[in-house]
Every structure is written in structure tokens, then in C-alpha cells.
Amino acid sequence: MNIEVFREYCLLKKGVTEETPFGPDTLVFKVMGKMFALTGLDSEHFNVNLKCDPEKAIQLREEFSYVIPGYHMNKKYWNTVDFERANLQQKKDWIDHSYNLVVSGLPKKQQESLNQLSE
Predict the structure, then answer these.
(1) Edge-to-edge strands of the sheet including 47-51?
(2) Which element (helix H / strand E) includes 103?
(3) How distant is the alpha carbon of residue 54 from its chain centre?
(4) Strand, helix or coil for residue 18
(5) Closest to 86 in 3D by CA, of 116, 61, 51
(6) CA 99, 46, 17 angle in degrees (round to 5)?
(7) In whole angstroms, what is the distance from residue 72 CA to residue 48 CA?
(8) Residue 22 pLDDT greater than 60, yes or no
(9) How far apart are CA 104 and CA 87, in angstroms?
(10) What is the mean pLDDT of the chain?
(11) Going by C-beta distance under 8 Å and a sequence separation of 6 or more, which residues neighbour residue 88?
(12) How far is the C-alpha of 104 from the C-alpha of 23, rounded, in Å?
């Protein structure tokens, strides 16, 4: 999964927008205005920050050397993943987990609005 495929995968999800709120070198994906994934556009290495359940975040860091505490993020809830080392299924699973975690934390009204959107 290169950055173009990563971008397409994120944008296929309901309610997702892409933005550059931190400047032109950081691509951020949000669902209903809340971040679930971001990556640098000016880096030689393809790393992605993904939101993660705190217990799962620790487990992933212990199991995979290419998963580290989120760079410039709240390290309790965010991991930085070396997307050049993770396999395709891991990448998809971890993006999905991040997206679903953010959706589950949305207020009920926003969740209902999201469910009303067409795929």
C-alpha cells in the first residue's frame, strides 16, 4: 500500500474528508471532523499515525517493532506505523480500527448523521 492507495482506502469510508490543517506537508483524514489518520508528505519514509485503543496500542508496540508511540500525538491513543514494513492486511485492519474507534466516540447525533450518508 503506497500513499495513493492509503489515501483512496481512507476516502472510501463514510464521512471522511482529507485536509491539511497542520500545513501542506501533513495529510490528515477525518471522519465527521475528527482525525483518525495522518501522514507526512515530505518524509522519505512512509509512516502513518493512527488512533488506537490504549490497551491495543501497547500490545501492538510490544508485538511489532515498526509500531511506536504516536509521533507528535497523545501517545496513549496514537501509534505511528511504518507502512513500508507492515503487511497489507495489518494496514487495512489498523486503519479500520482507527476509523471505527473515532466513529464510536462521536456523539449519537453525529453517528446518526454518518449512518444516513450514502457509501
Answers:
(1) 16-19, 26-31, 34-40, 47-51, 78-82, 67-69
(2) helix 88-104
(3) 14
(4) strand
(5) 61
(6) 35
(7) 12
(8) yes
(9) 26
(10) 94
(11) 1
(12) 28
Interval 29-69: pLDDT, tens: 999 999 999 999 988 889 999 999 999 999 999 999 999 99
Q: Tell me, what amino acid is at 25?
A: D
Q: CATH number of the domain at 3-116, out of 3.10.170.10, 3.30.470.10, 3.90.1150.30, 3.20.20.190?
A: 3.90.1150.30
How far separated are the first and last CA of the chain, in Å rounded? 22
Helix (H) or strand (E) segment spanning residue 82: strand 78-82
DSSP single-letter state for residue 113:
H
Q: Three cell numbers at 32?
A: 465527521
Nearest of 36, 22, 28, 43 to residue 78 by alpha carbon: 36
Cβ within 8 Å of residue 104, ≥6 positions away? none
DSSP type of residue 14:
T
- What does the alpha-carbon distance between residue 115 and residue 96 come to, in Å, rounded to a whole number? 16
